[in-house]
TrEMBL record:
<keyword id="KW-0805">Transcription regulation</keyword>
<dbReference type="Pfam" id="PF00392">
    <property type="entry name" value="GntR"/>
</dbReference>
<dbReference type="InterPro" id="IPR000524">
    <property type="entry name" value="Tscrpt_reg_HTH_GntR"/>
</dbReference>
<dbReference type="InterPro" id="IPR036388">
    <property type="entry name" value="WH-like_DNA-bd_sf"/>
</dbReference>
<dbReference type="InterPro" id="IPR028978">
    <property type="entry name" value="Chorismate_lyase_/UTRA_dom_sf"/>
</dbReference>
<protein>
    <recommendedName>
        <fullName>Histidine utilization repressor</fullName>
    </recommendedName>
</protein>
<dbReference type="InterPro" id="IPR036390">
    <property type="entry name" value="WH_DNA-bd_sf"/>
</dbReference>
<dbReference type="InterPro" id="IPR050679">
    <property type="entry name" value="Bact_HTH_transcr_reg"/>
</dbReference>
<dbReference type="Pfam" id="PF07702">
    <property type="entry name" value="UTRA"/>
</dbReference>
<keyword id="KW-0804">Transcription</keyword>
<dbReference type="InterPro" id="IPR010248">
    <property type="entry name" value="His_ut_repres"/>
</dbReference>
<keyword id="KW-0238">DNA-binding</keyword>
<dbReference type="InterPro" id="IPR011663">
    <property type="entry name" value="UTRA"/>
</dbReference>
<feature type="domain" description="HTH gntR-type">
    <location>
        <begin position="7"/>
        <end position="75"/>
    </location>
</feature>
């Protein structure tokens, strides 16, 4: 696999601001440094700073007020907490002493299919980025992935070479999210899926459907089908913990 590129200056500035907001360091209503202050801090142009702040405003994380500056947006009171972490499959595989691999099977930039509910929920009738991927461990298939990305929320994804970067890993490293939802089920591998996973038809698979949002803006929807004997879900809790 190719070495991952360092984040661009735009991504670094946006990541720094998002990190302070999501960590609570910059609370709702906090005034973000003025454009000239960010220009001095990052030694960049006004155009670069303005592009970052515009993207953050469009995502709902900040509010830009004429002549007053930019402020951390006040989020709606019904934000949910994700019950499970979102794993980086590459890190998880490597962390267990195996060699991670990845294949991009298909990539399309197209309009949403009105007959597919998850596409309509993500972008309405707009455009999306659709991909099919195969994850491997030690050269053997581990999981199939179907991923949809909302380029309106993350426009930089249109320029990323996802044949070199697994989309899930890239999103976790470059895009912040505030809310997520998992749906877990089990299915038997179809003939087409079994061929890609190199297993008999009907092999049990664990399925995770996941969607993430930033504020009220959908970011991505993904369906991952893992070989049933190769993936565990573990939840840790304690007596008296709040749900």
């Amino acid at each position: 696999m190719k070495d991952k590129k360092a984040p661009s200056l735009n991504q670094r500035i946006r990541g720094d601001i998002e990190g302070r907001i999501l960590s609570g360091e910059w609370a709702p209503g906090f005034r973000i440094p003025y454009e000239h202050e960010l220009m001095a801090q990052y030694a960049c142009s006004r155009m670069t700073v303005n592009k970052v702040l515009t993207a953050l405003a469009e995502s709902g994380m900040i509010e830009r007020r004429r002549r007053a500056g930019s402020f951390v947006a006040r989020q709606p009171p019904h934000l949910e907490q994700v019950a499970l972490e979102i794993p980086d499959i590459a890190l998880a595989v490597n962390g267990r002493g195996h060699r991670y691999g990845f294949q991009l099977l298909e990539r399309q930039q197209r309009r949403a299919d009105p007959a597919v509910p998850e596409e309509l929920r993500l972008v309405g009738e707009g455009e999306l980025l659709a991909m099919r991927c195969l994850h491997l461990a030690d050269g053997r298939p581990l999981a199939l992935e179907r991923r949809l990305i909302n380029p309106g929320a993350v426009p930089e994804t249109l320029a990323v070479d996802f044949s070199a970067h697994a989309p899930g890993s890239w999103l976790l490293q470059n895009v912040s999210w505030t809310r997520g939802q998992h749906r877990i089920s089990a299915v038997a591998a179809t003939a087409a899926e079994a061929a890609l996973l190199d297993v008999p038809v009907g092999t049990a698979c664990l399925v995770i459907d996941r969607q993430t949002w930033r504020g009220e803006t959908p970011i991505t929807w993904v369906r991952q089908k893992f070989l049933g004997d190769a993936y565990d879900l573990v939840a840790r809790f304690a007596p008296g913990a709040k749900i």
